[in-house]
Amino acid sequence: MDNNLEEQKFIRAKKKVETLKSFYTHFAVYLVVNTILSTSKVIRNMNNGETFQEAFFDLNTLALWFLWGVPMLLHAFKAFGFNFFMGSDWEKRKIQEYLNEGKNERS
Fold first, then answer.
1. Could you give phi then psi for residue 82, rounded to 5 degrees?
2. How far, CA to CA in Å, does 34 sit from each of 28, 63, 75, 95?
3. Is 51 helix (H, G, I), strand (E, B) or coil?
4. By the 8 A CB rule, do 55 and 39 touch?
5. Cα(first)–Cα(last) distance of the chain, in Å?
6. Spatial distance between the Cα atoms of 80 and 83, rounded to a whole number of angstroms
7. Phi, psi of 57 (to 5 degrees)
């Protein structure tokens, strides 16, 4: 029984590490891709006669960061355990509910 408990802890820890790794990868891609796209937009706009401030604060440039930033924020909530909608122990309660349901069916 104790061995099974340790195995479950290991599986949960491994899942948490994989979730964090996925978030960090997503965040790195978000930064690199948005930086490259924003830089190219700013340079293109400046070549079209805009000042740096006009080019940098262009709605299209900022929308790029925002539109991808919302899913990025949701991914961060998931990765770091900010469960606003279901609560932090929702998953454990749901698992226990299904386990109890299986016991009741066998009785």
1. -85, 85
2. 10, 10, 17, 39
3. coil
4. no
5. 23
6. 9
7. -95, 20
Name 41's Cβ contacts closer than 8 Å, sequence gap at least 6: 55, 58, 60, 61, 64
Q: Which two tokens stand for residue 52?
A: 């740096």
In single-letter form, the type of residue at position 95 comes to I
Please count the residues of the chain: 107
Q: pLDDT tens string for the chain (107 positions)? A: 567 888 888 888 898 899 899 999 999 999 999 999 999 999 999 999 999 999 999 898 899 899 999 999 989 988 887 765 666 577 777 777 888 876 666 65
How far is residue 94 from each of residues 29, 49, 80, 84, 87, measured CA to CA in Å?
34, 59, 20, 16, 11
